[in-house]
Amino acid sequence: MKKLWYLIVFLMLFWTHPSSSIHAESTLQYLIDQAPEHSIVRIPRGVYHESIVLSKPVTLQGNGQVTIQSCRKEPVISIKGQRVSVKNVTVIQCSQEKNAAAIQVSGNHHRIEHVHIRTKGIGIKLEHAYHTVITQSSIKGEKQHNGIDLWKSEQNVIEKVRIEKVRDGIYMEQSDYTTAVQNLIQQSNYGIHIMYSDHITIQKNISKNNVAGAMVMETKGGKIENNEFIFNNRNVHAQGILLFDATETKVVRNNISYNRVGTFAESSSNNLILSNEVRGNFIGIQFKEANGNIVSNNTFISNVNEAQALSSSDNEVKRNYWDASLKLDADGSGYSDIPYKTNPFFLSLTKDIPEYQLFFHSPGMVVLQKLWKSPDNEAMTDDSPLMTAPIQDESKSSSGVIIVFSLLLFLGSITLWRIGRKKEDA
C-alpha cells in the first residue's frame, strides 16, 4: 500500500511540474527576467493578460499588435531602476481599484514611446521619477483619474501625447523643471494642472474643450509659450489659463480664444503676459488681487468684455491692440493718442442677471455703457494702445477670400451669359 502511495505522488509530480514550467516560460515576466541588461525583449504579436515589472535596464518592444492587459490592483506595467524603455505596445488597465495606474514609473532615465493606454484609473503615474521621456503615445480614460500624474518627479519630458476623457490631462505637483511640448489634451477637466512646481515649460500644446485649458497654481519661473487654449467654455468657471499665486511666469504668444475667461490672474505678481491673441472670449483678461504684472503687445478681438481688474494695482498695461478702442494717431507713431480704458459695465450687469447677455451690443446697452463710469479699481487702462493688431485679424484674411470667391462667381456668370447669347444668335 505504501509503494502504491509513493507511485501516485511520483506521477503527480511528474505530470504537474513540466506543465507549470512551460506556463512560466510563456509569460512576459519570464522573458524579462531571463533577458540580460541593456538587451531588447521583443514581444510577439498577441494579447497578454498579466502585470509585469521592469526593474533593470532593458527595452520592452512589441512586434506587431501587442496588448498587455490586467484588471489587478497593481499597475499593468511597473518601471523601476534606470534606463528602462517600453515601445510599441497597447496597455489596458481595467481595475476598479482607486488610483490604480496603467503604468507606474520611478527611477531615472526611462523612456515610454508609442504606447497607447486605455484605463479606468491613472494613465501614467510618475513618482520620484527623473529624466524620463514620454513621447508619441496616447491615453484615453473615463474622466475619473489623471492622464499623466507627476508627484515629486523632476526634469521629465512629455511630448506629442494625445490625452482625452480624463480628469486632468497632465497633473504635476512638486515636480520642478517639467517640460510639456506638442501635446493634445481634450474633453477633460483641466488640460494642464500645475501645483507647487517651479520652472515649468509648457510649449506648443493644444488644450481644448476642457473645463480649463491650464491651471497654473503656486508656481514660479514658468514659461507658457505658443500654445492653443481654445473652446474651454463648458463650465461657468471655465478659463483658458488661470494663474493663481504665480510669480515670474511668462505667458507669451499663445492663442487664447473662445473660452469663458481667456486669462484669469489671481493673487499673482510679476508675471509677463505678452504677444498673445485673445479672441472671442466672454472675458478677455481678468485680474483679482494681482499686482505688478505686465500686459503688453496682446491682441484683443471680439471679446464680449475685454478686461476687468478687482483689487489689483501697479499692473503695467501698455501697447495692446483693442478692437473696441477709439484710435487716433496724429504723429504716426503706431500708437493711439487716446488711452483705452476697459469698461466692465456689461460684466457687472450680467454677473447677477445672466439673462442680460442677450442684450449684448444692443443700442440701449451701448448707451448705458457709455453713461456708466467704471470704478478705477475695476478697469484696466492702456495709455498707448496699438493702432493695428500685431496678429492679423481673421476677419481681414477671410474678407480677401470672400472677394476672390465673388470675383470668380462674377466671371463665371459673365461666361455663362455669353455662352447663352451665342446659342440664341445661332
From TrEMBL:
Domain Periplasmic copper-binding protein NosD beta helix: 133-325
Pathway of action: Protein modification; protein ubiquitination
Keywords: Membrane, Repeat, Signal, Transmembrane, Transmembrane helix, Ubl conjugation pathway
Pfam family, one: NosD
SMART domains with a match to the protein in the record: PbH1
UniProt keyword Signal present: yes
Signal sequence residues: 1-24
Spans traversing the lipid bilayer: 400-420
PANTHER family recorded: F-BOX ONLY PROTEIN (PTHR22990), F-BOX ONLY PROTEIN 10 (PTHR22990:SF15)
Protein known as: Periplasmic copper-binding protein NosD beta helix domain-containing protein
Protein source organism: Aeribacillus pallidus
Lineage start: Bacteria, Bacillati, Bacillota, Bacilli, Bacillales
